[in-house]
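#random but structural
TW: two for the price of one
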Amino acid sequence: DRGTSVMLSLLRQQGITSVLEDSSGNGGASVSCYAAAGGMSATIMAPASTSPSKTVQMQAHGAKVELIPGSRQACADAAVAAHGRDDGTLFYASHNWQPFFLQGTKTLAYELWEDLGFHAPDNIIIPTGAGSNILGCDLGFSELLRTGEIKALPRLFCAQPLVCSPIASQILQKLQQDDGKTVPGEWNVPVKTVAEGTSIAQPVRLEECVDAVVRSGGSAVRVMEDAISAATLELARLGLYTEPTCAQAAAAYHELLATGFIKPSETTVVVLTSTGVKATPGVAHMLGVIV
């Protein structure tokens, strides 16, 4: 929502009235919401497997939803091809490509700094799909460092599901760290991750994300599916009802503690980005409940 608000405000100021977004769910819901608030029309392309709770929200905001068969990448390709449709009025407002989206996500860094008494945390664990929150934290905390408001950058840790972990895998490779886990030959095949919001096989800012994490002194965790499910239920029983997409960051926290990458005495922020209401069928499956 941080990035969407800034991005759509700028596009509306530039005269754009009709926007197109491709999304695994959460981004599309956000663009639909803010487009409605700004009097803009929205078309959202989402994978056919997207949770109905997310597509229903998009439609409730008045967006036109087009479900695309195949992978998340097929959805992105379809959106690129659709730019300029409707007699040239449909503008591809990708939250992955638009630079001003990151100017919104960087406010996460400023909010954390303020909430922690105007100090940076030692570590931030970020559930990662395309990497906008990694890049937002990098931008925001780098600005605070340059202006002398903090003494050092927090270490950024990328959390991704093992079965779809292009950014995390590249980080580990660059750092020459071996977690002992085996990735599939093709992302999300044969097992598809329950963390659908981070199921992005070809993130367009991969190298930027890798550089940001390495520069911060952080690393990455490739999270197993059973650990994602366990973290989702653990958080719920602590009073935090999140979807698996962000619960993987909590699973990564446990793994980082166990391996000694972070210490209990350090100030660590685990970023939780979305509500479990959006993943009701998935959470019901974890509980063995029929809905």
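TW: number two ↓
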Amino acid sequence: MCQAYKLSMTQAEGYVWFLPGWYKEGWYDLDNLKNNQKEKETPNDDTNDDDEGLTALKYLPDCKTSEMLRALDGALSLVHNNYAPDDSFTVGNISVGEWKGKLKKELDKRMKSYLLKERSTSFDFEDGNKPNKYSGYVYDAVWLYALALDKLMKVDKALVQDLHSEKAMAAFVKIIKEQDFEGVSGRINFEDGHSRLSEI
């Protein structure tokens, strides 16, 4: 977007940009990113790493945040909902809002514990105590596998004893494809193929 600004290829000049929706919040705030980068710089460190925060770029674009915002004005981005509406009830007989509340409480507890202990570089609360945007999908995946395993056991307990066999895997995949339930991330079903549909 910085280059679009420099080349005068913004909405003001009649251009429309379509952007992927997976960027982290504040990815365009180059002023802030540059300040954060200066604070983290160490001598002879010219490699990219995951500690860069919102971007893994070692050398940020040569634009100001205000220029990025002008370039982004009028841009379109398509993102999917990570969660169903808060008042939706899930297969676990809990509303999405209640689940989010429980998740926040657990993350707050773990963050507090993390801050009180000596930290290692192998684990980091990258976004503080905010849940990862994929948290709901993980929760729903666990439910998907649990429901499928439960049904597989009811169909033939012997299949579970040798879950890696071709016969067991075929039965397990067939059962997974038949699942249809409300999850934290929305409706879970695979009627039209290998991927579920997401609301946007």
